[in-house]
Write a structure and sequence with these properties.
453 residues, alpha/beta, Rossmann fold, Transcription Regulator spoIIAA, 4 domains, 5-stranded mixed β-barrel, binds S-adenosyl-L-homocysteine, binds iron/sulfur cluster, binds FE3-S4 cluster
Length: 453
């Protein structure tokens, strides 16, 4: 082989191509990057399309019923492909198959699926693949393993932003939520492991990271002398790191120390994803959220007083068991008052094993649907109002990608505070930080023109 050629020359040594389909949240996106790293270490390469893959993996989500149904549909649809290519390896992992019963059901119902395992056995993927290569099947759910494995290989998917886990699992047990059951107890990575990973990413060319946790605000509660604000200070010293994002923030743990850190550290972005879930104290109590609407509004006030440009996004559930019209109006009222940049809104979906699933007064579908519709209409108006305040303003956009399909290439990326901006610009701008003047608004984004530096 000539010098300088890649060590792993695809045609010569590749065992085949893999395709990973990811459902759910950023945790799963990050896990899929690890799965990809493990597969490439085994000698597989990324497939361009599902149809040409020799290994297909589904990384599943079970947060709502809809998410689970989609996964089942997707697996069923692969039966023919598997029949046509019997050597193809099919695997299902992630949150859905961390539920023992669901994993067993899936394993029985789809005999053509080779590998089924839960969230915390990802590092074993190479073993499961090896077994599948020799025709064996795997069903593996470990309900206790909660070790943190810091050094697994991974193939990053973010072009300009890299995800970095800071804490895993969740201890909050919001009564509607399955996550604590499928992601285990909360555990924090050591600060130096986080900083080392960020520094490595910067050396690889990333200048923006998103620190991930189900509740980043409680980071460090299982470590000595650690807090999320302290971690942010440490990470912010990594040379060359321009933007630090994080999600998700639980209102009950959002400290004044954190607000101060955000305001003072120059590379921490002024955006908080702060799920409120409901505007009614009665509902918040039954959800076990452990804050009141007053406390929530107080935090919003403090964030805005400390950072004039801060943007706040949220998650809201409508139709939680027992939610009355009055409760729902309280949610609308809070949305009106806060003026969120954006809100992810959901109809409550009962999850087996959670407390809310067996609560009385489950809300009929039609009522949930109607409430969701009303909430979305209001949020759309608020998003637009929020966008309009940017007209004529200038800011720095970190360009993420470029759409070259139209007559003129259009780049897009975000302001530091998460506002999405579209701007006519050539593809060479991808990865750069460019000044943009806002000229117009769209439903969920801004449009503008490039300015001189
Ligand atoms: N850890 C994060 C988000 C977890 S899941 C947090 O605490 O904010 C993302 C969102 O899904 C939640 O914020 C909630 O709004 C929604 N969600 C969770 N369980 C749900 C359920 N059973 N039905 C409907 N929405 C749900
Ligand atoms: Fe679920 Fe609540 Fe934990 Fe978020 S904080 S993952 S909503 S239990
Ligand atoms: Fe879904 Fe698991 Fe995330 S249930 S929302 S993928 S933590």
């Amino acid at each position: 082989m000539e010098q300088g050629l890649p060590i792993r020359e695809p045609e010569l040594t590749s065992k085949g191509a893999y395709y990973i389909e990811t459902f759910g949240c950023q945790m799963n996106v990050r896990d899929s990057e690890t799965a990809a790293g493990l597969l490439e270490n085994c000698g597989y390469l990324r497939a361009e399309a599902k149809e040409s893959a020799d290994i297909i993996l589904f990384n599943t989500c079970c947060i709502r019923d809809h998410a689970e149904k989609r996964v089942f549909g997707n697996i069923g649809a692969l039966k023919e492909q598997k029949e046509a290519h019997p050597n193809m390896i099919l695997g299902v992992f992630g949150c859905m198959t961390q539920q023992k019963e669901v994993a067993e059901k899936l394993y029985k119902r789809f005999p053509f699926v080779d590998i089924v395992f839960g969230t915390n056995l990802l590092s074993k993927l190479p073993q499961f693949i090896e077994l599948a290569e020799s025709g064996g099947r795997t069903l593996a759910v470990d309900e206790n393993n909660i070790t943190i494995e810091d050094d697994l290989p991974s193939i990053r998917t973010g072009r300009v932003n890299a995800f970095v886990n800071i804490n895993y699992g969740c201890d909050n047990f919001c009564t509607y939520c399955i996550v604590p059951y499928v992601r285990g107890r909360e555990r924090s990575r050591e600060p130096r492991a986080v900083v080392a990973e960020v520094a490595k990413l910067v050396s690889e060319g990333y200048s923006e990271v998103t620190l991930l946790g189900q509740n980043v605000n409680s980071y460090g509660k299982d470590l000595e002398n650690a807090s999320f604000a302290k971690l942010l200070s440490l990470v912010s010293t990594v040379e060359g790191l321009q933007r630090i994002r994080f999600m998700t923030s639980h209102p009950k743990d959002l400290s004044d120390e954190l607000i101060l850190a955000m305001a003072e550290l120059p590379n921490v972005c002024h955006h908080v994803h702060l799920p409120v879930q409901s505007g009614s104290n009665v509902v918040l109590e039954r959800m076990n959220r452990r804050y009141t609407r007053e406390r929530y509004l107080d935090i919003v006030g403090k964030l805005r007083a400390s950072m004039a440009d801060v943007e706040i996004t949220t998650d809201i559930i409508v139709g939680f068991p027992g939610e009355t019209d009055e409760d729902f109006l309280q949610t609308l009222d809070l949305v009106e008052q806060v003026g969120f940049t954006a809100a992810f809104t959901f109809q409550y979906s009962p999850r087996k094993g959670t407390r809310a699933a067996t609560m009385e007064n489950q809300i009929p579908e039609a009522v949930k649907r109607e409430r969701l519709h009303r909430l979305n209409e209001l949020q759309q108006r608020k998003s637009r109002e929020n966008n309009e305040k940017y007209i004529g303003k200038r800011g720095i956009v970190h360009i993420e990608d470029c759409d070259t399909r139209g007559e003129e290439p259009v780049c897009y990326g975000k302001f530091s505070n998460f506002k999405m901006v579209y701007v006519p610009a050539p593809p060479e701008m991808v990865g750069r930080y460019v000044p943009v003047r806002i000229l117009n608004v769209r439903k969920n984004s801004l449009t503008g023109k490039l300015e001189e530096l």
